[in-house]
């Protein structure tokens, strides 16, 4: 156990004590935005004229005078009464242009690789790119006159300055962006010397302003003058601004090449915490055909954000997807391969345009998400009342306080119009991450050996404790509203996971042997316990149990078993009930897709 | 190259040096993927020491004493890698002590209705290493008293208790759970699977929740009890339904362990005043942002009183989450 860290001494003043507590992120983007936003963007180049800093944004605040800085000196133990930092102590203002040019413009053998340099509180990330190899600068051999050297650029680098404590994944993303811009610039340079022209412009303006400053003695930032004259400078400024706000960058280098990029940390954040890209990727890898894609805005809005030359498959998919269709059906309806549908869905999820859910159906059970904001005055409450006049959000959310299935939620006496509105409301709540869906998970746990099996029949049945769900058959609902999940699973082909090798029907020796083999993976004690259940006397039931044995580890929920094994919900529930003395059932959210509702800890 | 270099360059300007300045840099070479924030203070400290040594005795510019750097550097490398700390004797009068301090993330704010519980056995806690406030509240941290109660019983001001517990939280000595009442409602999280998959957690759990003096509870019983916790079921209901399983299990410890390891989570009630006439004041506490726990702590009402008051109010709806 270490000693308490050196901290300001506790004084008797209550007010000051409160201030010393760690500030909690209050769920606002601002605090987490600090760590995921860049501090500045810098363009440097290295060439025959040496290392140059071409552009830098935001502009440096020209220091008023040295005296104001001196008064800010204070002891590190003094309390900061305002609690806010007035000047950004992590900023890169102490690095002058020349120093930055020297440290950020690397030698040519560092090109084509990630460049990362950390100085105290700032981390610089970039991807130096070679424009031409230094030895192949063309020299005309026949020209006897002293060679007038054209100033040439050998390499350049778009560098982002970040806070030192930025997440490694943020650093990786910024490097990615730097590389993308570099590739576009390299291409344009080769095609029409775009970069050289822009660089010349920038340097010319810088020289102009320096000359002016010397004369007039009023310090000005040369970059401010560059901005209106230089398209590249404008692009870089835009990239910086987008990164700090929405996290989506869309540039058109030289009005020709598009560079697009998104920072997942800004896009996917729930309740003030961002979802790590690795978690996102893990989730995307685990999508199954029975999942569905839910667009986060309406179709028109999403289509409007797509670039003009986007793939027609993407457009088709967006137009065809719906909250009630699983990905397999979507593939059929949009006439695309399932793999392609997976890829496009993953793409849409990554860019924050959609999330993965289990398709809406009658038997889905929803509950209020622990991260949902129930606040009376939240902006969500206002949006909800505008979208669904006459309803208020807290009352709606209160209905989901206890897990409730969609069939219970709907009132069968309601008019169809109201029914449709209810479904729309549920979709709205899902889009805003206010609801989580609960699934049933089963685990095989036999009672311990020495004790006698207790009087299990007297106990209340250990089936899913979620309301009084009736095992309803699919009711005749209007088109577009959720149907029973049974319908969906029965039309799906079994995947490789199913153990369909067991022939249904009679108690043939083949089947008996297969059952035995399956049960052989258990311990003797477990096998005895299973065989002593009264239902095990029925060979059909025992066979089904043995077949599904590998699902009873608590990792597969009911709907997944239904999908893989092509079984009805009622069949499975009966089986669970018969073998309840050796099974334990629980309900919780699906960890694979729950990352959209709750950030991982 | 796949390596990372950490250094702190120093420049000492003086006419006695051959170029009017001495520049040196002692640093570390690490794997590019390694987390090296803990090494930075060490590098800084070392550069400060070396600067002082140079200014006082010309340690580095002198060729002879410079040779001493080689064994110093190898000791530094070996000891830091092995023990995370090292002691470097420079000469008869100077010794440098260095230690790797682990960087931890900022702890959450501690509220008055949170309950601190020790993550390891209380016997491992060496009181004398901690400050006076922590020593004073130490006997009252039992995993069931909440901050407000600790403050009242230990006679320590509330904010001081909050800070002291936050400090303990930072070092991972305690973790926070919610107040236990038999009327509480909990539900399982996906992490409940860890109880089945993870052997060490299983062992820890069974040892923790078994009533003292009884034979160890069976995994099935404990797992059934956890799975019996669900929305709509209070702990009291659980006790009556699963009386057989609870013969060897202490339900309070069961809930405590479940919360500490994230196997279950508490469902809190949040009252919201949805209907009010224009003339009345806007609700201060019934906005959906404050749980029953918080309201009870702040107003001094008991849970039952608050419940009765709100159940009968038609303008207030209650959400559980």
Automatic annotation (TrEMBL), chain A:
InterPro entries: Galactose-bd-like_sf, HTH_NPRL3, Npr3
Keyword annotations of the record: Lysosome, Signal
All residue ranges annotated as the GATOR1 complex protein NPRL3 C-terminal HTH domain in the record: 523-584
Membrane-traversing stretches: none
Coiled coil: none
Region named Disordered: 475-507
Function: As a component of the GATOR1 complex functions as an inhibitor of the amino acid-sensing branch of the TORC1 pathway.
Family stated for the protein in its record: Belongs to the NPR3 family.
The protein, known as: GATOR complex protein NPRL3
Organism this protein belongs to: Scleropages formosus
Gene name of the encoded protein: NPRL3
């Amino acid at each position: 156990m270490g000693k308490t860290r050196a901290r300001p001494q506790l004084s008797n003043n209550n007010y000051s004590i409160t201030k010393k507590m760690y500030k909690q992120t209050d769920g606002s983007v601002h605090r987490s935005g600090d760590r995921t936003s860049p501090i500045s963007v810098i363009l440097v180049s290295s060439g025959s004229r040496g290392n140059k800093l071409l552009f830098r944004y935001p502009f440096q605040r020209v220091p008023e005078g040295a005296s104001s800085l001196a008064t800010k000196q204070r002891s590190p133990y003094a309390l900061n009464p305002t609690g806010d930092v007035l000047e950004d102590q992590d900023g890169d203002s102490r690095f002058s242009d020349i120093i930055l040019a020297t440290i950020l413009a690397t030698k040519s053998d560092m090109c084509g690789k990630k460049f990362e340099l950390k100085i105290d509180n700032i981390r610089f990330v970039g991807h130096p790119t070679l424009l031409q190899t230094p030895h192949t600068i063309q020299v005309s051999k026949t020209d006897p006159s002293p060679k007038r050297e054209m100033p040439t650029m050998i390499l350049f680098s778009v560098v982002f300055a970040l806070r030192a404590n930025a997440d490694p994944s943020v650093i990786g993303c910024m490097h990615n962006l730097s590389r993308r811009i570099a590739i576009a610039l390299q291409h344009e340079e080769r095609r029409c010397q775009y970069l050289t022209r822009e660089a010349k412009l920038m340097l010319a303006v810088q020289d102009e302003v320096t000359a002016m400053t010397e004369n007039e003695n009023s310090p000005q930032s040369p970059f401010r003058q560059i901005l209106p004259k230089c398209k590249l400078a404008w692009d870089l400024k835009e990239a910086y601004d987008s990164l700090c706000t929405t996290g989506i960058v869309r540039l058109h280098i030289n009005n020709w090449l598009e560079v697009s990029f998104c920072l997942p940390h800004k896009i996917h954040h729930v309740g003030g915490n961002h979802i790590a890209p690795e978690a996102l990727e893990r989730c995307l890898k685990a999508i199954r055909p029975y999942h569905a894609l839910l667009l986060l805005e309406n179709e028109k809005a999403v289509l409007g954000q797509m670039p003009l030359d986007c793939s027609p498959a993407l457009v088709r998919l967006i137009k065809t997807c719906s909250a009630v269709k699983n990905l397999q059906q979507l593939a059929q309806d949009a006439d695309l391969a399932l793999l392609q549908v997976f890829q496009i869905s993953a793409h849409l999820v990554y860019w924050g345009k959609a999330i993965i859910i289990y398709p809406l159906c009658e038997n889905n059970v929803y509950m209020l998400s622990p991260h949902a904001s129930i606040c009376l005055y939240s902006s969500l409450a206002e949006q909800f009342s505008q979208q669904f006049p006459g309803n208020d959000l807290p009352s709606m959310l209160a209905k989901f306080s206890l897990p409730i299935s969609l069939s219970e939620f709907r009132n069968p006496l309601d008019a169809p119009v109201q029914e449709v509105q209810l479904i729309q409301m549920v979709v709205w709540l899902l889009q805003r991450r206010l609801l989580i869906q609960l699934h049933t998970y089963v685990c095989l746990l036999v009672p311990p050996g020495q004790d006698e099996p207790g009087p299990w029949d007297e106990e209340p049945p250990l089936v899913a404790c979620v309301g009084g769900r009736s095992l309803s058959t699919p009711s005749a609902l209007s088109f577009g509203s959720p149907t029973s999940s049974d319908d969906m699973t029965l039309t799906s082909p079994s995947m490789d996971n199913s153990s369909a090798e067991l022939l249904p029907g009679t108690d043939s020796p083949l089947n008996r042997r297969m059952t035995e083999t399956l049960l052989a993976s258990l311990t003797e004690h477990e096998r005895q316990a299973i065989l002593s259940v009264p239902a095990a006397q029925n060979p059909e039931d025992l066979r089904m149990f043995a077949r599904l044995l590998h699902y009873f580890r608590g990792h597969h929920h009911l709907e997944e078993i239904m999908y893989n094994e092509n079984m009805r919900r009622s069949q499975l529930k009966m089986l669970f009930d018969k073998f309840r003395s050796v099974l334990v059932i629980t309900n919780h959210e699906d960890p694979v897709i729950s990352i959209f509702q709750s950030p991982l800890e | 190259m796949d390596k990372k270099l950490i250094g702190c360059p120093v420049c000492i300007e003086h006419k006695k040096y051959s170029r009017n300045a001495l520049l040196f840099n002692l640093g570390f070479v690490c794997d590019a993927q390694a987390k090296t924030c803990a090494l930075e203070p060490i590098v800084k400290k070392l550069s400060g020491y070396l600067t002082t040594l140079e200014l006082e005795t010309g340690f580095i510019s002198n060729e002879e004493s410079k040779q001493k750097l080689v064994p110093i550097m190898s000791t530094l490398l070996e000891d830091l890698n092995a023990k995370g700390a090292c002691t470097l004797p420079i000469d008869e009068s100077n010794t440098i002590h260095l230690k790797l301090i682990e960087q931890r993330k900022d702890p959450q704010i501690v509220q008055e209705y949170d309950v601190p519980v020790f993550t390891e056995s209380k016997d491992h806690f060496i009181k004398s290493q901690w400050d006076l406030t922590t020593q004073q509240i130490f006997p009252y941290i039992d995993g069931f008293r909440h901050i407000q109660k600790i403050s009242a019983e230990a006679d320590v001001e509330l904010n001081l208790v909050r800070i002291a517990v936050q400090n303990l939280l930072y070092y991972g000595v305690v973790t926070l759970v919610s107040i236990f009442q038999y009327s509480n409602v909990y539900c399982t999280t996906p992490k409940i699977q860890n109880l089945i998959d993870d052997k060490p957690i299983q062992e820890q759990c069974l040892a923790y929740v078994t009533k003292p003096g009884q034979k160890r509870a069976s995994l099935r019983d404990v797992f059934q009890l956890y799975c019996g916790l669900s929305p709509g079921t209070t702990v009291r209901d659980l006790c009556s339904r699963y009386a057989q399983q609870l013969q060897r299990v202490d339900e309070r410890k069961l809930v405590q362990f479940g919360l500490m390891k994230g196997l279950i989570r508490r469902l809190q009630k949040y009252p919201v005043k949805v209907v009010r006439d224009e003339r009345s004041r806007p609700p201060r506490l019934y906005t959906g942002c404050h749980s029953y726990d918080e309201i009870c702590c702040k107003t001094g009402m008991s849970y039952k009183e608050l419940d009765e008051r709100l159940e009968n109010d038609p303008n207030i709806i209650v959400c559980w989450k």
